[in-house]
Amino acid sequence: MVLDLERHREMLRQCSIAAALESVGERWSFLILRGAFNGLQHFEEFQSTLGIARNILSNRLARLVENGVLQREPDPTDRRRVAYRLTDKGLDLLPVLLSLRQWGEKWISAMPSNPVLVDRATRRPIAPMAVRDADGRMLTRAELEWLDRSELDG
Amino acid sequence: MVLDLERHREMLRQCSIAAALESVGERWSFLILRGAFNGLQHFEEFQSTLGIARNILSNRLARLVENGVLQREPDPTDRRRVAYRLTDKGLDLLPVLLSLRQWGEKWISAMPSNPVLVDRATRRPIAPMAVRDADGRMLTRAELEWLDRSELDG
DNA sequence: GGGAATCAGTTGCAGATTGCAACTGAGAAT
DNA sequence: ATTCTCAGTTGCAATCTGCAACTGATTCCC
Q: Checking DSSP bridges between strand B70-74 and strand B82-86, what pairing results, if any?
């Protein structure tokens, strides 16, 4: 699964990882999102639970809103309060968060983290995030290969 | 899929996302890893293809090695050269990279990125990274719920 | 109605991090 | 012997981060 060097520069411009990191790649962004996924909505909640500096939090929330990952909704019943909610774009980051979490669980903390995401119907934990083929079968690394898009069939 | 506030502080200590970000959460780390996944191995390759400052690259590579994500292997045939290779721990980050890439592709760049990861046998692209149940069935957000670990069955 | 508390920030400032450009030093190529 | 390549390091300016204190608009409580 290796490429030659010539294609790399072109690749950087095309690759969406760089683009994604512009939105969510800053120091606290992932932890803010993790909080949001677990239901945090308000400035003071994020601040006190994450222990992040207030100016940084203010800045990161603004940037996440700017990038359409969170939306800022003033609370009509209390005009001081503002709710930050995940947009659909933000909710779609769940696989990223879960992959990262499972990796950390496996290789660093060892300790299984809490809470656990389960299938609401069966109450069984979700499967580990893994690379799968179009039919949902898990693929090992040996079964994978990088292919230039132009070489794809129809 | 929401939690009460009291458990959040405890959660931060337990959650492995924070731990994972200690290893790979810095500005350039993901892009370095992306390069490594596509076969980059040498300092000058990373530097020229990513356009990263040399001192920062030096520092990031050292930290990734320190964290066991890359391993540093002096080349026996040319004693100037050093190869940086993904360890098993590093290779296990593939789901994170792919999730992030697919997200960027869907929500930001729109343009499908290159190269494509395919099943070597069938030459068909891998499936999108998604949350699945233990049997491999894709789960929608409505089917998901956060559960305290203590409430899990057996 | 008046004072205290809460919420979502902003400001000032010190220290850490990043980025650029130039330099180094070992080894390889000619 | 000289030049070139590789993997860094160094010095310095600019940016970013983090802490603590402050603001300004509500809302709560009596």
A: antiparallel
Contact A125, A118 (CB under 8 A): yes
C-alpha distance across the termini of chain A, in Å? 22
Instruction: Give the DSSP letter of residue A84.
Output: E
Regarding beta strands A82-86 and B144-147, do their DSSP bridges make them parallel or antiparallel, or are they unpaired?
unpaired
Determine whether the distance from the CB of B80 to the nearest atom of strand C is below 7 Å.
yes
Closest CA to B111 of A16, A9, A68, A67: A16
Query: Of B97, B100, B75, B99, which Cα lies nearest the Cα of B85?
Result: B75
How confident is the model at residue B59, as a pLDDT?
A: 98
Q: Give the predicted TM-score (pTM) of the model.
A: 0.92
How far is Cα B23 from Cα A21, in angstroms, rounded to an integer?
16
**pLDDT tens digits, one per residue of B45-104:** 999 999 999 999 999 999 999 999 999 999 999 999 999 999 999 999 999 999 999 999
- Report residue A96 CA to chain centroid gap: 4
Distance between CA atoms of residues B20 and B16, nearest Å: 6
Per-residue pLDDT at A3: 42
b/e per residue, B61-80, with b = 16+ CB within 10 A?
A: bebbeebebbeeeeeeeeee
* Residue B50 tokens, joined: 């990513």
Q: How far apart are CA B38 and CA A17, in angstroms?
A: 13
For residue A71, what is the enclosing H or E element?
A: strand A70-74
Amino acid A132 reads: R
Alpha carbons A36 and A45: distance in angstroms, whole number: 10
Nucleotides of C under 7 A from a protein CB: 6-12, 17-22, 25-29
B56 nearest nt, CA–C1': C18
* C-alpha distance from A109 to closest chain B C-alpha (Å): 6
Q: Which of A17, A93, A126 sits opposite B133 (nearest CB)?
A: A126
